[in-house]
Every structure is written in structure tokens, then in C-alpha cells.
């Protein structure tokens, strides 16, 4: 099982780095769930809603690059720690706050906890380090 999870992790990382939402979503189940653990963001449920969320993230950060630092595999899950570099291209709302683009690339760490069902991503829980909020000018203003 680990070999197939390793292959999925490689394909998934490549898909994200191409910024191709169709390619990313081809690796998700139809009942997929996504949760970005930042500012109490809600779960996004279902392939259409997740596709929209991912498209929105890629529009906010059109130059985003993920570099895998570590990966851990279980029977039906993988944990991927990545170094993320991205430049905010458009204003990004955080509830009542809005992060404004400043033209400077940000670099921070992210961790994905991914549940796999039948070889596809069923659930993606994403955690970002506090450096993301700090670089967006939201440190002390946003619940991380």
C-alpha cells in the first residue's frame, strides 16, 4: 500500500505545481472534503465545492510552488510537509479582515493530512504555520 500512496503523493504534488485544477481533482473522490485550518475556515464538501476552493486559492496565488520536505505514510493516509512559496495576487478576505497584495513572495511551511480511499484523496486537512499570517500582515488579527 505504501508504494501506491507514495505514487499518489508524487502525482498530487506534481498536479498542484502545474496549477491544473482538473489534474488535481482527478486525484480526488466525488465526496471529497477540504479544510484549510486558518481563521476558522469551514470544511468544503464535495468535488464541485472543493474544485472551486482550489481554483480560488490558485487565483490568489498564481505563482504558488510546493516543495516537499517530509512525507509519512500509513495504511490509508499520508502526511506531507511542504515549503510553500507564493505571491498574493489579489486581496484575500479573512472574515472582516482583508490581506492586501504587496508584490513580495511569501515562504512558509504547510502540512497536509490526507485520507485516501480507493487510491484517491477523500479528505485533505491543510495546516499553515503562523508565518503565513505574519507575511500577509494579519498576525495578531487572525485566529490561526
From TrEMBL:
Pfam family name, one: SnoaL_2
Coiled coil: none
Domain of life where this protein originates: Bacteria
Residue ranges constituting the SnoaL-like domain according to the UniProt record: 10-122
Listed name of the protein: Nuclear transport factor 2 family protein
Amino acid at each position: 500500500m505504501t508504494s501506491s500512496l507514495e505514487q499518489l503523493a508524487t502525482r498530487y504534488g506534481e498536479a498542484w505545481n502545474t496549477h491544473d485544477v482538473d489534474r488535481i481533482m482527478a486525484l480526488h473522490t466525488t465526496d471529497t472534503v477540504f479544510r484549510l485550518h486558518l481563521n476558522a475556515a469551514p470544511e468544503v464538501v464535495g468535488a464541485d465545492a472543493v474544485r472551486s476552493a482550489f481554483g480560488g486559492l490558485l487565483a490568489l496565488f498564481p505563482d504558488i510552488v510546493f516543495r516537499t520536505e517530509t512525507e509519512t505514510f500509513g495504511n490509508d493516509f499520508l502526511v506531507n510537509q511542504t515549503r510553500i512559496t507564493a505571491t498574493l495576487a489579489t486581496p484575500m478576505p479573512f472574515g472582516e479582515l482583508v490581506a492586501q497584495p504587496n508584490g513580495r513572495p511569501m515562504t512558509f511551511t504547510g502540512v497536509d493530512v490526507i485520507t485516501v480511499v480507493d487510491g484517491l484523496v477523500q479528505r485533505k486537512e491543510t495546516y499553515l504555520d503562523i508565518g503565513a499570517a505574519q507575511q500577509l500582515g494579519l498576525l495578531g488579527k487572525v485566529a490561526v
